[in-house]
């Protein structure tokens, strides 16, 4: 299988995960395994990796490229949102590092034939996990105009969301919208020529991104992950997330903050002492997010919107059992 992906902020991620030989780590987004291999090297000779991906192509690829590390690696085809269940089934209570690198791999975008890119003419699928119920095509052909407009606006920040949703509903009354080519053409037709000329990106970029996020329920899954993954860390263990969308970064930032000193306490501001029982359990390792160097962006322009956040577990959560 051809599987191309340029790993983003590999050194930065490994450095901030503070990996030690013998550590037990989770990579929740194996993709092309660039981070997974670097983690396995850093925790050698005994350290173990639990590698997760919701895309069976990524798991098949990992089985090949991580073959030299097979005795230290467990591969799991699942969604990282279910990390508590995944670890429980393996009899593991806590790990030393949890890492996720969100979004799509280059393989999914350009080689998977699942309709992620407007530069290809493929069926509108966009599911990273083929077990996901609803495809992009089904959404476009059954969702109300309002619901489609909301998706385009919320996840794609598309200013012409209503106009595009209206054009889709009109088109599907004649015949269903089936391919990426049809969708890209329809969006280009709706967009004023002046905007098409002046925008740096293809007119369909935002709608394609929004649909992909909606199909894979990416924000809900990230919220579930951020709600529980910190509970699964040993003291001194680290959680590191690379995100590519402002909504994702907001979820990560808020989840870390809610467990930090001076942030998660729900007592009224004028209470002299905390009575809500909040115990800070995480500490941010960097002040703000880490971003790729100009050199990395030059080599890999797709890395330009990446933001890396990392936090360390400093005490057990109130709900830890
Ligand atoms: C950006 S790629 C990861 C690239 C990888 N770090 C590397 O260096 O090659 C993202 C991968 O995460 C997977 N993924 C995205 N969201 C996921 C989720 N909620 N659960 C499991 N896997 C997910 C995708 O299928 C894709 O393979």
Q: How would you characterize the overall build of this protein?
A:
With 321 residues, this protein is an alpha/beta fold. It has 2 domains: 10-107 and 218-313, Vaccinia Virus protein VP39 (Rossmann fold, 3-Layer(aba) Sandwich), CATH 3.40.50.150; 133-215, Orthogonal Bundle (DNA polymerase, domain 1), CATH 1.10.150. The chain is 40% helix and 13% strand. It contains 14 helices and 7 strands. It has a 7-stranded mixed β-sheet with strand order 3-2-1-4-5-7-6, sandwiched between helices. Strand 2, helix 3 and strand 3 form a beta-alpha-beta unit. Helix 7 (145-156) packs across helix 8 (161-174) and helix 8 (161-174) crosses helix 9. The mean pLDDT is 94. The site of S-adenosylmethionine has 22 residues, from helix 2 and strand 2.
Number of strands: 7
Bound ligands, named by name, code or SMILES:
S-adenosylmethionine
> What is the level 1 CATH name of the largest domain?
Alpha Beta
Q: What proportion of the residues is helical, as a percent range?
A: 40-55%
- Order of strands, main sheet, comes to 3-2-1-4-5-7-6
Which descriptors would you attach to this protein?
Rossmann fold; seven-stranded mixed β-sheet; DNA polymerase, domain 1; 2 domains; 13% strand; globular; 321 residues; binds S-adenosylmethionine
Q: What's the structural blueprint in terms of helices and strands?
A:
Blueprint: H1 10-17, E1 24-27, H2 34-42, E2 48-53, H3 56-65, E3 73-77, H4 83-89, E4 95-101, H5 106-110, H6 136-142, H7 145-156, H8 161-174, H9 180-190, H10 193-198, H11 205-215, H12 218-228, E5 233-243, H13 246-257, E6 282-284, H14 294-299, E7 307-313
Parallel strand pairs: 1-2, 1-4, 2-3, 4-5
Antiparallel strand pairs: 5-7, 6-7
Bound molecules: S-adenosylmethionine (SAM).
S-adenosylmethionine binds at residues 5, 7, 28-29, 31-35, 52-55, 58, 79-81, 101, 103, 105, 128, 221.
């Amino acid at each position: 299988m051809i599987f191309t992906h340029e790993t983003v902020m590999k050194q930065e991620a490994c450095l901030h995960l503070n990996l030690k030989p013998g550590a037990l780590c989770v990579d929740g987004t194996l993709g092309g395994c660039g981070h997974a291999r670097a983690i396995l090297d850093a925790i050698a000779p005994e350290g173990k990796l639990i590698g997760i991906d919701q895309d069976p192509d990524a798991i098949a690829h990992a089985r090949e490229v991580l073959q030299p590390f097979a005795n230290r690696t467990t591969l799991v085809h699942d969604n990282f949102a279910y990390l508590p269940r995944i670890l429980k089934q393996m009899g593991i209570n806590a790990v030393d590092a949890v890492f996720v690198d969100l979004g799509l791999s280059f393989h999914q975008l350009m080689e998977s034939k699942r309709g992620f890119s407007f530069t290809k003419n493929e069926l509108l699928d966009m599911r990273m996990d083929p077990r996901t119920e609803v495809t992009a095509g089904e959404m476009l052909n059954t969702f109300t105009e309002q619901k489609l407009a909301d998706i385009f606006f919320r996840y794609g920040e598309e200013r012409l969301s209503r106009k595009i949703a209206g054009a889709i509903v009109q088109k599907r009354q004649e015949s269903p919208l089936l391919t990426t080519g049809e969708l890209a053409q329809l969006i280009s037709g709706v967009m004023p020529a002046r905007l098409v000329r002046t925008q740096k990106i293809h007119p369909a970029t935002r709608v394609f991104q929004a649909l992909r996020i909606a199909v894979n329920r990416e924000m809900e899954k990230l919220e579930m992950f951020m709600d529980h993954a910190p509970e699964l860390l040993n003291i001194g263990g680290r959680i590191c997330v690379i995100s590519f969308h402002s909504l994702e970064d907001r979820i990560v930032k808020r989840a870390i903050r809610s467990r930090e000193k001076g942030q998660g306490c729900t007592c009224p501001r004028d209470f002299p002492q905390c009575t809500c029982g909040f115990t800070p359990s995480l500490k941010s390792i960097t002040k703000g997010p880490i971003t790729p160097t100009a050199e990395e962006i030059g080599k890999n322009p797709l890395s330009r919107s990446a933001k890396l956040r990392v936090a360390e577990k400093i005490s057990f959560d109130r709900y830890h059992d």
